[in-house]
């Protein structure tokens, strides 16, 4: 006997609607137990994240404290007109108290006839001849001196515009900043924490003059996508064996058609905001340099033209990036971004006075035999870069928990504006605040390699942690000079990905 | 559907009373679906628990509380399909195997009897019948869900209908 299929279907539909079997009584306690258990796990997860932040923050704070503790022990400046005996005291024995240093605030003004760099034009050196215009009153109390004079005394004339100080680009203090080899260590919320490891630094013989104020920035190595509706992510969602189970979208004709598109790799777009705290361990190597006329412009600390020291910068800033991710497969994506960054750093330097020659220099390490005072200045600058990278999920897939391998390359063909603000701090007080806008070009490459673990928080959020190593090879050009740099950094990272 | 709105909000923040209320509200429907798809009570109970765990885990993603019932239905169906796939994988069964028709007992055909009749269909026929006739999916969608060709879907549905027609005919429908 044939039954109308339509009627039969309706019959079964009604039956399915009306059929309500008794649900098992014992199920709810079991379900409730499993829900609560999962919540407890969540608390543990957040506690572990908080611990990680504490460790990272504590390490950064410790690094900062260990550096600032140098300052009082190096407070040897502002001595009265020194004697030869005082000048013989090496900087390493700088145990004079801060009281003594603050009490002795007069700067020496006696020119030196035995200056090693005397063959150079006077404008290229920060020696006694630079002080010719300093009034006796200013010598007696440098804090009352004019800004320009104070800068000269401090060896910072280079930061003044050329129109103000015609030969500022050749001052010796600038040389002191040359060829810094910066090892960044970053502590970041959604960013990086890296501890330093310098690999190598190379000086180019072709470079005629001076070093750099440049504080090479590690471009952000972590980028997060905030977009949750891209074909590529939908493809992962759909195609992953585990996630296949949780397809909750209504199955429609459009959806089916869209799935065909989802199978293809496609772009996703995202945005990242990355506040960060950066510690730069620097290794400075001074070299015997020549100006364009072949004259020496800095007295080498090391007769072999090199010396080393460690210096520490404190950087606070953030970076923002708009980026696209192109899915290669379920595990891998190609990342391309455009990043803007902002940093403010506090950098240590030393005001050094040679008691025997009367020479005054700004340097990044205490000079042996000189009286040196630890000082700081601030930099505020902006940068733009275009990071390129890849993320590969070693376990799981790109949107689930699991180990991750990251690598990124940041080609640096950039022209950046650097707005620097120098706050000269003496004995805890800002004595000078000078702003200068600078433009520099940079060509080079930063390569990063990292291993991390991602924890899926929910369907849209992923927490990524890991270890990252970065290497940098670049040549930087600013208005004065090119500088070759090679450095590396290793550290931990933590970040959030929103999809 | 204001009550669903509050229910969903409460569940989204993990409020135990809301979770229990939602469970009580939909347990029969969910269990019905689980039982209808899995074909036996013990497996249905397992899937039933999984469905509610999944509901409470993902309810914060539900944008429209008015669509709660349909959303739960879809989760239930998908959970059942996954369970069946897992079972099929474990037993190394293929879609063309074990098409034996269950023993019939169709003297009184009420709703439960009709559903019992559906349970007696071979798993492949039952799945296709449930997805097509009860849930209203088209062949293409079922084909994608089950990983079989559309022609197989059509064939299985035709056979399921034919078999059920016979049984219904015997009982005077």
Mean pLDDT of chain A: 51
Structural class of chain B: mainly alpha
**End-to-end span of chain B in angstroms?**
37 Å
Could you tell me how far the N terminus lies from the C terminus of chain A, measured between alpha carbons in angstroms?
A: 56 Å
Number of helices of chain A: 10
Overall geometric form of chain A: elongated
Strand share of the residues of chain A?
35-45%
Summarize the structure in words.
The complex is a heterodimer of chains A (499) and B (173). In chain A, strand 11 (429-456) and strand 12 form a beta hairpin. Helix content of chain A is 21%, strand content 37%. The longest helix of chain A has 42 residues, at 27-68. The model of chain A is unreliable at 60-267, 280-292 and 294-311 (pLDDT under 50). Chain A is α+β, with helices and mostly antiparallel strands and 499 residues long. In chain A, helix 9 crosses helix 10 (253-262). Chain A has ten helices and 13 strands. Chain A has a domain at 49-72 and 181-230 and 266-350 and 363-498. Chain B is an all-alpha fold and 173 residues long. Chain B has two domains: 1-92, RNA polymerase sigma factor, region 2, helix turn helix motif (Rna Polymerase Sigma Factor, Chain: A, Orthogonal Bundle), CATH 1.10.1740; 96-173, Winged helix-like DNA-binding domain superfamily/Winged helix DNA-binding domain (Arc Repressor Mutant, subunit A). Chain B contains eight helices and no strands. Chain B has helices at 2-12, 16-38, 41-58, 68-91, 111-119, 123-134, 139-146, 150-170. At the A-B interface, helix 1, helix 2 and helix 10 of A face helix 2, helix 3, helix 4, helix 5 and helix 6 of B.
Put the structure in a nutshell.
The complex is a heterodimer of chains A (499) and B (173). Chain A has 499 residues and is α+β, with helices and mostly antiparallel strands.
């Amino acid at each position: 006997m044939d039954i109308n299929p339509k009627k039969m279907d309706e019959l079964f539909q009604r039956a399915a609607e009306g059929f309500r079997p008794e649900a098992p009584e014992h199920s709810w306690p079991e379900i409730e137990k499993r829900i609560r258990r999962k919540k407890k796990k969540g608390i543990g997860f957040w506690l572990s994240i908080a611990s990680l932040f504490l460790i990272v923050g504590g390490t950064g704070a410790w690094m900062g404290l260990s550096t600032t503790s140098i300052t009082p022990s190096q407070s040897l400046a502002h001595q009265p007109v020194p004697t030869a005996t005082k000048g013989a005291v090496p900087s390493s024995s700088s145990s004079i108290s801060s009281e003594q240093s603050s009490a002795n605030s007069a700067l020496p003004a006696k020119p030196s006839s035995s200056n090693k760099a005397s063959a150079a034009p006077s404008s290229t050196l920060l020696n006694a001849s630079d002080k010719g215009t300093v009034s006796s009153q200013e010598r007696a109390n440098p804090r009352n001196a004019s800004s320009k004079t104070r800068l000269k005394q401090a060896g910072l004339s280079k930061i003044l515009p050329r129109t103000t100080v015609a030969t500022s680009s050749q001052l010796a203090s600038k040389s002191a900043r040359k060829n810094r080899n910066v090892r960044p260590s970053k502590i970041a919320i959604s960013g990086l924490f890296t501890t330093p490891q310098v690999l190598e630094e190379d000086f180019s013989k072709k470079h005629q003059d001076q070093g750099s104020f440049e504080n090479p920035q590690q471009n952000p190595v972590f980028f997060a996508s905030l977009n949750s509706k891209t074909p590529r992510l939908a493809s992962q969602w759909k195609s992953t064996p585990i996630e296949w189970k949780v397809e909750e979208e209504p199955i429609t004709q459009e959806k089916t058609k869209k799935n065909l598109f989802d199978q293809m790799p496609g772009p996703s777009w995202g945005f990242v905001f990355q506040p960060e705290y950066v510690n730069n361990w620097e290794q400075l190597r001074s070299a015997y340099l020549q100006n364009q006329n072949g004259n020496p412009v800095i007295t080498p600390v090391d007769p072999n033209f090199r010396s080393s020291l460690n210096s520490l910068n404190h950087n606070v800033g953030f970076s923002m990036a708009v980026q696209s991710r192109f899915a290669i497969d379920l595990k891998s994506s190609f990342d391309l971004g455009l990043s803007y960054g902002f940093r403010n750093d506090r950098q240590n330097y030393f005001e050094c006075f040679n008691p025997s020659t009367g020479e005054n220099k700004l340097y990044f390490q205490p000079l042996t035999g000189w009286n040196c005072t630890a000082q700081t200045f601030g930099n505020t600058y902006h940068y733009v870069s275009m990071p390129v990278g890849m993320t590969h999920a070693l376990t799981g897939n790109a949107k689930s928990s699991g180990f991750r391998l990251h690598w990124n390359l940041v080609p640096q063909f950039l022209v950046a504006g650097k707005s620097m603000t120098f706050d000269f701090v003496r004995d805890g007080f800002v004595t000078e605040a000078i702003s200068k806008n600078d433009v520099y070009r940079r060509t080079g490459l930063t390569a990063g390699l990292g291993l991390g673990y991602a924890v899926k928080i929910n369907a849209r959020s992923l927490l990524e942690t890991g270890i990252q190593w970065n290497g940098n090879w670049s040549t930087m050009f600013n208005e004065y000079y090119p500088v070759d740099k090679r450095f590396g950094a290793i550290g931990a990272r933590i970040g959030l990905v929103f999809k | 559907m204001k009550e669903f709105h509050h229910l969903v909000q409460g569940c989204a923040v993990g409020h135990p009373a809301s979770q229990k209320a939602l469970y009580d509200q939909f347990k029969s429907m969910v269990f019905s679906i689980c039982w209808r798809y899995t074909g036996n009570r013990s497996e249905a109970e397992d899937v039933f628990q999984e469905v509610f765990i999944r509901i409470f885990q993902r309810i914060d993603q539900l944008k429209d509380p008015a669509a709660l019932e349909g959303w739960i239905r879809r989760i239930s169906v998908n959970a059942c399909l996954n369970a069946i796939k897992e079972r099929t994988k474990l037993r190394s069964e293929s879609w063309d195997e074990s098409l034996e028709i269950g023993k019939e007992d169709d003297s009184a055909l009420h709703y439960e009897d009709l559903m019992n009749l559906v349970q007696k269909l071979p798993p492949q026929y039952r799945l296709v019948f449930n997805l097509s006739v009860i849930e209203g999916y088209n062949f293409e969608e079922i084909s994608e869900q089950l990983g079989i060709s559309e022609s197989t879907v059509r064939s299985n549905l035709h056979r399921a209908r034919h078999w059920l027609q016979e049984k219904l005919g015997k009982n005077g429908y």
